Amino acid sequence: MTKTFRLSETVDFAIVGSGAAGGVIARELSQAGFSVVVFEQGPRHTLADFQHDELKNWFSAGLINDVVKSPQTFRDDHAKRGERNLVRPNLYYARTVGGSTAHYTANYWRLHECDFDECSRLGPIAGTGFADWPIDYAELEPYYTKVEWEVGVSGLAGASPFDPWRSKPYPMSPLPVKSSGVLLERGARKLGLHPFPAPLAINSQPYRGRPACIHCGFCHGHGCEVGAKASTLTTMIPEAEATGRCEVRSESYVVQVVTDKNGRASGVRYFDSDQRERLQKARAVVVSANGAETPRLLLMSANSMFPQGLANSSGLVGKYLMWNFTTRTHATFEHELNEFKSVQCSRIVHDFYDSDPKRGFYGGGGIDSRIGPQPIIWADRIADDEQLWGSAYKQRLADFPRTMQCAAHGTSLALETNSVELDPELKDAWGMPAMRVTYKDHPDDLALMRFMQARAAEIMDAAGAIKVSNSPIKPQTSSVHMLGTCRMGNDPAKSVVDRYHRSHDIPNLFVCDGSSMVTSGRGQPTLTIQALAFRAAEYIAGFARRNEI
Amino acid sequence: MNTTRNDGLSRRTFLRVAGGALGGAWLTLDLSKVAQAAHDAHEAREAGALNTSFLSRAELADVDAITAQIIPTDDTPGAREAGVALFIDRALATFFGRMAPDFRSQLAAFRLRCQAQHPDAGSFAALSNEQQIAFLKQVDRTPFFERVRLLTLVGMFAMPKYGGNRDGIGWKLLGFQDQHIFTPPFGYYDRDYPGFKIEVVSKS
Fold first, then answer.
1. Does chain A have fewer CB atoms within 10 Å around its N or its C terminus?
2. CB contact, 8 Å: B75 with chain A?
């Protein structure tokens, strides 16, 4: 029986969000002896709910935010009005206990040293918010290791010559290689590159009470039916609840962080599953609602004392939105790969990780071998003007088991104009302001996308593919990686939270998730988000013990 | 409460989505009606009768003919054998009900246009194979065709519990297997993999 708190009680911490960061912080604070209520907008699923249902999870709001109930608007220029997207949310995430760790691919890349101090290394870039982090790799390294061991990551230490130093190897050996991984490795080595086993937060053997992967092929966009993929739903959250001091309140949509007359956070106002408005009092509030919903919540929490929204004296809440692009290259081979089996990625290439001034633009990235899309999306995506329907199209459909995807990911430059704000007109189903997303790629990001995709295509050629096709590179309008919108920094005029994730403006309001990141990394931010969360929780617990919140 | 319809599938949207990061178009799926739809489709097949739920018999015949051009039957089964037309009929009556009014009016316009070109044939379904292909080439950039095409893919490749993909015909066509457990080797190229070797390199 897990703990249930009454609304009349003042709990130590209200945590908004049960995902990558919220789940970790809930466990750490409850294990440290504090009372915690975690608020999650979405429902709580059990593993039995996770079916191989592509239609539900990819074409409707099966797991993700609902474009009808929680609409968003998008524009690429501040002079324009935001257009409502009726097809799919521009920023989308899993809206369920576990957050996006429920439906992610579980690629767990550490940031490298350069990601933290690249601005100092390379020099500033005019017109951007490119900056160093207030912490360096060495400061975060113990927490990377902690995530890898507490959450469970499979990988091979020392396999990549480009990896940063580490204090401990991975707790589990890599997952079995797939045909796509063998081909990526073959092609990359022919070109003199250094492919290595992809680190994944998926069990290659039983680990901490969860079973090994059964290779069912439904990681990406789906929940894991056996719990081998590390979601906070099956890792951190149950351990938090086992303390008897943590309640996870699902279907509870927080719409305001409330402050008292002294300008301190005093609790959260939320809608429960019956759309009733509720107030939970708390000694301190931690917002870990993701890089899109966190700034939206702080902006929605504006009141007479904080008319710009909470923690926003810098005006930077919601600014510097960064994504990690994905470019796609589909490659068809002579024999069957059967990429629909097992995990998404088994081999990656980090030879292009560092920014190289010789390329003429800023940025770097990684390349991975991965499963192609699942059946409906495959059938949709391979259609082109020549083969939209009919016999030739049907023939192309049958290339499914012989085709893989080689994807590239990389940096986004922080731009103040790229942002999450409140739409001035559109409301959601609860009557709250909809999210307005403004985003336009920096020219260097687009140049990097073209560069990385060309490298991926070369690797597929070198691997012996009989057909290689690149998905067109266009300005991005959508992402699942939402970073940088409440950036960390030492200067209250240039950042939202300090190096401990405490907001500069309100001493008992903490913010920790993808929004804290100062640079985007090269893709796959979840491990960093969780390392930040372990570190933040340690400091927050210390502040609470010393009555410094 | 926002009740804006969200099943618009313009050609522009389709192309953006198909080439982009997102997979497919968004379909408003009323999950509470999935079981009923599958049950209905199953009953209809068992009875061997074409008792339609949403479309008229004549409309169903036309939809069936369109889907059979999208994924034709040749030496392997196509949309017809997978039961796609009946799937579309049941889906529009149930979990895709939100798009049903648009679908009906677009289908009516399609049929009128076809009739104007082929007054003697009476319906799209009654045209010869060549005539059907020629006509579809004129209309395959319309929102209606895109909608039927997407519904055909869903009826072919979604889980059979939604009432299509009869006997897993769609998945067999692709070579996709829906299983809970697979074991390595997964494909041809990982069969004789010797194991990962760390290369000693200097970071230049």
1. N
2. no
Residue in A with minimal Cα distance to B79? A394
In the three-class reduction of DSSP (H, G, I as helix; E, B as strand; rest coil), residue B47 is classed as: helix
CB contact B11 to A (< 8 Å): no
What phi, psi does A330 have (nearest 5°)?
A: -95, 135
In chain B, what residues touch A62 (CB-CB under 8 Å)?
A: 29, 31
B26 vs A53, A88, A326: nearest CB: A88
CB A204 within 8 A of CB A175: yes
Q: Are B162 and B87 in contact, with CB atoms under 8 Å apart?
A: yes
- C-alpha distance from B21 to closest chain A C-alpha (Å): 7
User: How far is residue B204's CA from residue B201's CA, in Å, rounded to a whole number?
Assistant: 9
Answer whether A508's CB lies under 8 Å from A283's CB: yes
Distances (CA, A) of A355 to A123, A128, A377: 12, 16, 33
CA distance A442 to A519: 14
Q: How many CB atoms lie within 10 A of CB B19?
A: 16
Angle between helices B129-139 and B57-70 (to 10 degrees): 80
What are the pLDDT digits (tens) for A305-333?
999 999 999 999 999 999 999 999 999 99
Residues of A within 8 A of B155 (CB-CB) are none
For residue B200, give the chain A residue with the closest CA. A161
Minimal CA separation from A178 to chain B, in Å: 6
Rounded Cα–Cα distance for residues B150 and A19 (Å): 33
Is A414 in a helix, a strand, or coil? coil
DSSP secondary structure of B48-71: T----SSS-HHHHHHHHHHHHHHS
Contact A68 B28 (CB under 8 A): yes
Tokens 């004549």, located at residue: B58
Orientation angle between helical segments B143-157 and B100-117, nearest 10 degrees: 120
Distance from CA of B180 to the nearest CA of A (A): 5
Of B85, B144, B135, which is closest to residue B109 (Cα–Cα)? B144
**Record: contact A156-B196, CB cut-off 8 A:** yes
Q: Scanning every residue of chain B, which has its alpha carbon at the shortest distance from the alpha carbon of A54?
A: B158
Q: What is the mean pLDDT of chain B?
A: 83
Distance (Å, whole) CA A105 – CA A198: 11
User: Whole-angstrom Cα distance, residue B84 to residue B156?
Assistant: 6
CB contact under 8 A, A214 and B180: yes
A223-236: pLDDT as tens digits: 999 999 999 999 99
- Yes or no, beta carbons of A398 and B26 under 8 Å apart: no
Which residue among A375, A428, A477 sits closest to B176, beta carbon to beta carbon? Answer: A375
ipTM metric: 0.94
Locate the DSSP E strands across A337-418.
345-349, 365-370, 403-410
Three-state SS annotation for A50-96? CCCCHHHHHHCCCCECCCCCCCEEEECCCCCCCEECCCCCCECCECC
| Inter-chain CB proximity B186 and A84 less than 8 Å | no
pLDDT of residue A509: 98
pTM: 0.94
SS3 category, A142: helix
Question: How many CB pairs lie under 8 A apart between chains A and B?
Answer: 226
Interchain CB distance below 8 Å, A59 and B1? no
Q: Provide the CA B142 distance to its chain's centre, in angstroms.
A: 16
For A426-477, what is each residue's pLDDT tens digit? 999 999 999 999 999 999 999 999 999 999 999 999 999 999 999 999 999 9
Question: What is the mean pLDDT of the segment spanning B116-143?
Answer: 95
Provide the residue type at A341 as one letter.
K
Partners of residue A268 on adjacent β-strands: A257, A280
